[in-house]
Design brief:
By secondary structure, this protein is α/β, with parallel strands linked by helices. 45% of the residues lie in helices and 15% in strands.
Amino acid sequence: MIAKQLRVAARLTGVAGLLVCYLPFHAACIVARRPSPWPRRFLGGSAWVAGVTVRAEGNMAAAPLLLVANHVSWIDILALGTTGTAFIAHDGLASHPLLRLLCGMNGTVFVARHDRARVGAQAVRIAEALAGTGARGGVLTLFPEGTTGDGRTLLPFKSALLAAVEYAPCTVSVQPVLIDYGAEAAAIAWTGAEPGLGNVLRVLARDRPLEVTLRFLPPLMPGERASRKMMARAARERIASALTADAEAKTNAA
């Protein structure tokens, strides 16, 4: 127990140290109105401090780009953050001052998924960010399941916010991404009634290294982009196929 507590304390201290070191450089970039590489470096460094190794398979498409990914854990943010993407996140995160600061650094676009009356306006804001007219533009990540899953199966994909691709004043690539934790998926997944803070502390207390693979799948073809529902269905099918193929490969190897 003491070893786990010390491990958590050391990792939290390491992340805090990265934030203190990087924040002035990030602020300087903002003042100079220059693109800031520091959010990407902070997220990648935080992943390393947490004992996470990030691998990438396949190629990420060029911006403007909407990445559509499965959602397993808060580690997803650290892993995908190494690519330089910003995120579309639930506005509940903005109620926490520290999380609001961290999300703001990375150009997060906040949405209220429960507010159906504002879905159209929220999709327009996402389209503006993709077009580069927001604080950070070019690449955004959407988790269309709307919550975290167990890493082995996919929840239904919600299509409403994919309308942003239709609203964007430029052609936006839509690329599915499988976030794969392999055999460790069930151990780190945030599911059920587990409190968020409890999951964070449990994952940080691990003594085994964690490897996550970002599998960049082929972007959607024009025929798969005719509507937001078609995009959601095509992206889910592509990620589900990759997830199944990966599981079968691991079973055969064993």
